[in-house]
Design goal:
The chain has 119 residues and is α+β, with helices and mostly antiparallel strands. The protein has a single domain, classed as Gamma-B Crystallin, domain 1 (Sandwich). Helices cover 14% and strands 32% of the residues. The strands form two sheets. Strands 1, 3, 4 and 7 form a four-stranded antiparallel sheet that branches. The chain has a four-stranded antiparallel sheet with strand order 2-8-5-6, with no helix packed on it. A hairpin with a 6-residue loop joins strand 3 and strand 4. The relative contact order is 0.23. About 19% of the residues have low confidence. Keywords: Signal.
Length: 119
């Protein structure tokens, strides 16, 4: 009985550690009210995000919401491989929506969880 409890406890701990919580969501629309992308972790990785700009404005804009707490730096890229930088912004976090004028399509972005932009 004791070994079953320990096994269940260890399994629960492993499962809880392996669950990845998302931090940032890209949207279409103008104020995080359009088509919603996946809720992805903010881990300074290249995140593919084509089709998440607003077609409602004459200048292309990219809309993103940081659901995690604290400031996060978002760097936007024209290509899908995070190499052609078209802008960056620090989002305050806590479900804040950022609408940035990039002037071009955004097909990928990176998110830094510490608010420091490092292209």
């Amino acid at each position: 009985m004791k070994s079953t409890f320990i096994l269940n406890f260890v399994s629960a701990v492993i499962l809880s550690v392996s669950i990845v919580h998302g931090d940032v969501i890209a949207f279409s629309g103008s104020t995080c009210d359009g088509g919603e992308g996946s809720n992805v972790p903010c881990q300074e990785q290249c995140i593919h995000a084509s089709g998440r700009h607003s077609a409602l404005t004459p200048l292309l804009r990219f809309i993103v919401q940081v659901v995690a707490d604290g400031p996060h730096c978002l760097t936007f890229y024209e290509d899908g491989g995070c190499s052609i930088n078209v802008g960056e912004v620090v989002n305050p976090g806590g479900a804040s929506c950022t609408n940035i004028n990039t002037g071009t399509d955004v097909n990928s972005f990176k998110c830094s969880p510490n608010g420091v932009c490092a292209n």
